[in-house]
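Thread title: Can someone regenerate the structure for this chain?

I was given the following input by a collaborator and told the matching structure tokens would be attached. They weren't. Posting the sequence so someone can regenerate them.
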Amino acid sequence: MRAAVVLVVVALAASSVALAAQAGVQLPASDVEAAYLYQLTKYVEWPAPASESSDVTVCVAGDAGVASALEQIAREDSGAGHKVTVRQDPDPSRAGDCGVLFVGRSAEPRFAQVPKALDGRATLIVGHDAPFLRRGGMVAFLVQDRNIRFSVNLAAAQTAHLKISSQLLRHAVQVLQ
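Best answer:
Regenerated them for you:
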């Protein structure tokens, strides 16, 4: 039941961009992307670490707006079941320390080699657009009809030993196998 509620929240977050635009109010894309990132932590299963902790570190590279919004969401959601810690602008060589790595557009050149460098390490790599997925990204945010949606590179996620919930995959615009 909780999973259905969370998916509704994600769908509403995406739809709110269109509704806000119709009402003449623009929600920052960074707020919607932060909400998606937070929800992704609930629908991805990482290999069990030695500590068995369910905490997730989300590293945000090159987008202070997303990092700030994500920190606020993590503080306000006390019923998450796990703690989400946000780290801003990580060093590319330490990307493997992140459970989720969000690469903002301004950081793409600095992090271009990270998917290859991680070589199967359990880090969910999130960015923007289809070329990002083809370069080894696992989730990409896309704008369609003034709404933020997402695509998934399932093969890249599986190479990193990550299991993405079928509930999440059903809402993806595209799933690359």
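The helical segments are 2-22, 29-43, 64-76, 108-111, 114-118, 130-134, 154-159, 166-169.
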